[in-house]
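Appendix C reproduces, verbatim, an entry submitted by the partner laboratory led by Prof. M.T., so that reviewers can inspect both the input and the predicted structure.
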Amino acid sequence: MNTVSIVVCGVGGQGVLTASDIISIIALKGGYDVKKSEVHGMSQRGGSVISEVRFGDKVYSPLITDGMADYILSFEKLEALRNLTRLKKGGAVISNDYEIKPASVLMGKFDYPLDIIERIKSTGVELTLVDGVGLALEAGNIRTVNTVLLAALARKLSFEKELWIKSTLERVPKKTHEVNRKAFELGYNL
């Protein structure tokens, strides 16, 4: 198998690192070599969080450079746009249709771009826009947005649906299993 490279990005507190852990678990269970890295410097203050997951027969580095990612899984629209250069030709973006304004915007130093989706689409990439918050609320808990988005990614990868569900439930608290299962189904059936 050729190496699959996934950039998972968002803002601190959205579950980016949990999502990348789950992708890594699934790839390991699928019998692949997996490498993962993460950058979450100011994430606890609402800053960017980026995790890179690569899996395949043999992976030598977790780092994903410009033009190398097969997928961008974004928990916030501006983070999808910021990481777009990392996507390879023919790659796909799965993004939560959600805005979290960075501190620079809140302080009035910059404006939040109003044309993010149009700018992403103008590059010709395959874009799946997900109402992650709406589906998570429908499932019963807003904190399951990451599960909804993982399910949207699951449709594009070759792992069995039940492996995704089982691996997700292994990584989340037991008391949230039912709501995460429902969130997965909602995201998977988009």
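The first strand starts at residue 4 and ends at 11. Additional entries are available on request from the coordinating office.
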